[in-house]
Amino acid sequence: MNKIFKMKRLKIAEQILIVLFCAVVAPMIISGIIINNINQHAIRAQLRNSAMLVANMVSEEVDVFISTAYNELQQVDAILKTIPPENRNNYLSDLRGKFTQYEDLKLEDNLNNFDTLYKENLKKDMITLSIKTFDEKYLIAVYKLDEFKKFLFRSLKDDVRQIYIISPENEVVAAHNFTSELFIESKNLLPKKLYDNKAVIFGKDKNQPICYYKKTNPNLMIIVNTTQKVTNDTINSNRSQLLLAVFAASLSVFILVALYIYYMYINIRQLFKGIIAISQGNYQRQIRLLTNVFTPYEIVFLAFEFNKMVSQIHKSYKELEEKNIELAQLNEFRSNLIDTVSHELRTPLTSIQGYTSRLLRQDIQIDEETKQKSLKIIKRQSERLKRMIEDLLVIPDIERSRIKMNIEPVWIIETIENSKVLIKDKNQKEVISTINEDFPLVLADKDRLEQVLLNLLDNAAKYAYDDTSIKIDGNFDDNFATIKISNDSDYIPPEKLNKLFEKFIRMDDSTTRTSRGTGLGLFIVKGLVEAMNGQISLFSTEDNVFTVELKLPLFKEI
User: Fold this and answer.
1) Coil, strand or helix at 11
2) From CA 499, how far away is CA 227, in angstroms rounded?
3) Contact 128/142 with Cβ under 8 angstroms?
4) CB–CB of 362/326 below 8 Å?
5) Which of 42, 210, 309, 320 is the most buried (most CB within 10 A)?
């Protein structure tokens, strides 16, 4: 049950649509309905009032017509006084021919047949009026209804309502926009009780009010019928326009809000993606907003601060990665240093300790040759131990670029000869130098240069094939002297060749190691050569020749 009634967490777009519907659209629709009802009631009242106004207007027009007709008859009566009796009928005949509104104009002694005449003429679309003359006779005038109709509806020719003027016998005396079907329908809706000389609204349809006006003088009934066209032109048209306006306003609001939601939703999704990227470890993700008039300032500010934060995190992360790499390298260096030093130092120390103990024994007689041999071994191992310690001590200075050099002119031939002597007895490899005695002086630290050459010659002797020699060659140009040390050894691919200058890198790995060494020799050599403003390069050819090329600046006398 809890899962069924658990409220779903809505998205921003869904919440905005719900708020929009509740706060804008629903009130707008309700307001439209209320306004439409108010407007419909107002127009309905206006239609009733206008129907009553038309009925009163037609009634007044009937009164005006009758009054005018009576005035004309009275004027004729006044003229008849001046005309001899035998000529009066001729005058009336001439008057009838002169004015087209008269169908008949005559004098009668009494009105015994007036009602019958009135009804018969009414059936012939004529209306009959009479007045009593000065000589106690009756002047009877028969008017054509066409003239009567023109007079009655002259101000209502553009009105689309239907207007009927009915006699007491329910015969149509005059009509405007007459339709027999609607006339019968309107007449049947007349209430049983009728009020005299008063405009009264009746009918079942409130949007199509019908008005009657029962006149007593003359005895006529005026009916004004509001047709469906009038209703369509007023109530229905206004209702449609109002509903259309409400729809257009709602649609406009929806479009504007939809655009706003669309752009804001896209930008918020960018924020979500950025946050998700950071949570997944992607610290390079930047938020790119779709900015326009619909983009709120807060979203732009948040994106700017987010990108700024991401940049700072990425920068810190990169620094942390670099520190971690340095720490890993330091740990590896420490591990390699401990392993290498513990292994490489133990060997000379063991030799020194063993031969020293042998020389100190009193229980045996040691001849002079054995003593000299033992002392030479102790000396050689001590020198080896000294070189390893010097190598270890110079590493921090090389890494911090603070190694001190005593740069002076050095005769490189002498330095090479000293280095050859130091490795001759150890490696039993022949070192052949083709450098001439007139080779120019170079600028270097003599002791450090000897250390460099000793390391290079030691490596060359260590990895060279058996029964091969080490070759030293030299040349120079205007600025540099180039020393090349070559030996025959296995081919080294370029990708591994470039790594030999790194710490603890050897040509034979830990599983195939055939020679001793710390793996620091070339790293130290490179650091010392560069500290003396020189250059060093390694080359290995497929015909199994390994070459170290050493460049040092020449000494130039001023």
Assistant:
1) coil
2) 105
3) yes
4) no
5) 210
Ranges under pLDDT 50 in the chain: 1, 4-5, 509-516
* Cis geometry, peptide bond prior to residue 493 (ω within 30 degrees of 0): no
Cβ count within 10 A of residue 47: 22
What would the pLDDT profile of 333-353 be if each residue is shown by its tens digit? 667 666 666 666 776 788 788
pLDDT tens figures, 36-64: 788 778 888 888 888 888 888 888 888 88
Radius of gyration of the chain (CA): 65
Cα-to-chain-centroid distance, residue 63? 76
Residue-level pLDDT at 116: 80
Local structure of 357: helix, strand or coil: helix
Tell me how far CA of residue 453 lies from CA of 380, 415, 447, 551, in angstroms: 18, 8, 10, 12
Identify the helix (H) or strand (E) that includes residue 538: strand 535-541
Give the Cα-Cα-Cα angle 401, 402, 407 (nearest 5 degrees). 105
Smallest CA-to-CA distance from 196 within 219, 163, 171, 174 is with: 219
Q: Residue 438 and residue 420: Cα distance in Å, rounded?
A: 19
Q: What is the largest CA-CA distance in the chain?
A: 205
Q: How far apart are CA 212 and CA 223, in angstroms?
A: 4
Distance from C-alpha of 100 to C-alpha of 484, rounded to nearest angstrom: 145
Q: Say which amino acid occupies 537.
A: S
Angle at 106 between CA 101 and CA 111, to 5 degrees: 115
SS3 readout for 167-215: CCCCCEEEEECCCHHHHHHHHHCCCCCCCECCEEEECCCCCCCEEEEEE
Here the tokens at position 13 are 């777009």
Q: Which residues pair with 535 in a beta bridge?
A: 551
Strand ranges for 94-171 from DSSP E: 102-108, 126-132, 138-144, 162-166
Closest CA to 209 of 227, 235, 182, 191: 227
Backbone dihedral angles phi then psi of residue 302, each to the nearest 5 degrees: -65, -40
Comparing C-alpha atoms, which of 28, 7, 24, 8 is closest to residue 16?
Answer: 24
Location of structure tokens 């260590």: 462
> What structural domains and CATH numbers belong to the chain?
10-231 (no CATH), 296-400 (1.10.287.130), 403-553 (3.30.565.10)
pTM summary value: 0.46
Question: Which two three-digit tokens encode residue 323?
Answer: 């520190």
Instruction: Give the 3-state secondary structure of residue 267.
Output: helix
pLDDT at 486: 93
